[in-house]
Amino acid sequence: MKSIGNILLRLIMVACTALSFFLLLTSNVSLKINDTQAMGKEVINRVVQESDNSNLKIGVKLLEDTGLEQTLLEQLPKKYKIEMSYADLYRLCEKYNEKGELSTKDLGLTSKTKLEEIINDYLIKQINNKLDEKSEEISHVITIYEYSIFGVGLLFLLAAILIIFGRALASIPLAIAALGSFAALWIFSNEAMTSLQSRVYSGILVTLSSNIWLGLIIGLGTAIVWPFLIKIMKRIK
User: How far apart are CA 173 and CA 210, in angstroms?
Assistant: First the structure.
């Protein structure tokens, strides 16, 4: 009975490890805009300021004077949201390496109106400009990121194997993997928010979903509890 209990306990810890990996890999980082009309207005102003096309400036002024601009802004969806997971970011890295830039399709951006299309195009333009500004640095970061996803996976796998064999050392790769994957998503979300707020719209928020936090808590909790469980199992024996 004791050996069956030990086996079940190890299987539970392995399941916790697998759940932590799954949540950290598949849960979303969300880009949210709660006031799309304010964002639309700001994007229009930025496009006009950055353009040398006098006809565009006259056209926008005409829209403002006739009230059509507000009508167009009201056609925007009330909220704007893009969601990406650790795995999605890996695919974006591959796309950027292939083409040297990202597209609205790569980010899953769709548009029902011309104004939405303009906003999406401007958003992707600013993202690509930021990537181009630090292309050499970005290239190194992408390479590290692409390899890191495999490294994280191997660390979780190593932790699960060590747990199966009853090794207290399993806590080390598990803690590193959980903290490392969380840190990567945390850094990405903060960098993305800072850049987009300064380049596109100050009201853009980039946040980690509750499931990412849950994945971190489960991973670290398992890493902390496991060595104590090992001692308890040895005492029972």
Answer: 23
